[in-house]
Design goal:
Elements (H helix, E strand, L loop, with lengths): L5 H25 L1 H6 L17 E8 L8 E11 L2 E10 L6 E10 L7 E6 L4 E11 L4 E5 L6 E5 L6 H13 L15
Antiparallel strand pairs: 1-2, 1-8, 2-3, 3-4, 4-5, 5-6, 6-7, 7-8
């Protein structure tokens, strides 16, 4: 390799730089841009019982985002692992029966007082994002999760379909928290 022409030696470096730039843009899209576009998400309202986070959560509604474009039947499976969680987010492209897309993350509690802020790391730590449980109704099986920048919000349910009255109450709560509910997407769940 020492005798290779200079152009050949630069190719791996260019490929690495392009990959790094793509990852940096993805991270920037999730963190920096979100943090500066809005004044921020409201603080979580109450303490989260950590045992309530485990299990499968179904997406009922979300603000549009690049990572979940054309995602249906979206779920997040939270499994307790020592001091944190293993989180597997899944969706199907185009329809509830479409090709599967999956993201794996590790989550840790960022605020041990309320247990409502979580730091998630993706791609072995290359990407990081904080998610806050802004409100939850354990008795009705739903929670509202958002990013600290205030750009993104999700309504998650313990059941694939949320009862109409609970869904309406949760959407009203999202509006009270300052989000534009007319912009929400409502992904289909598998039947």
């Amino acid at each position: 390799m020492l005798n290779a022409p200079p152009a050949r030696r630069r190719r791996p470096l260019r490929a690495f730089a392009a990959t790094f730039a793509a990852l940096a843009w993805t991270t920037l899209d999730w963190t920096v841009l979100a943090a500066h576009a809005h004044a921020g998400a409201p603080e979580p309202v109450s303490r989260v019982e950590l045992t309530k986070m485990t299990g499968r959560w179904y997406e009922v509604a979300r603000t549009p985002n690049a990572m979940q474009k054309d995602c249906e039947a979206a779920t997040a499976d939270w499994t307790r692992t020592g001091e944190g969680y293993s989180v597997v987010q899944t969706c199907r492209r185009g329809s509830p029966e479409g090709p599967k897309k999956e993201w794996k993350a590790s989550a840790t509690v960022a605020d041990p007082v309320k247990n409502a802020k979580f730091k998630l790391t993706f791609l072995g730590g290359l990407m990081r994002q904080e998610y806050w449980v802004l409100d939850h109704r354990a008795d009705e099986g739903w929670l509202i999760m958002g990013t600290p920048g205030g750009n993104y919000v999700w309504l998650l349910s313990k059941a694939p379909q949320l009862a109409a009255s609970a869904r309406n109450q949760a959407i009203a709560r999202i509006r009270q928290l300052g989000y534009d509910t007319s912009a929400l997407e409502f992904p289909q769940q598998a039947r």
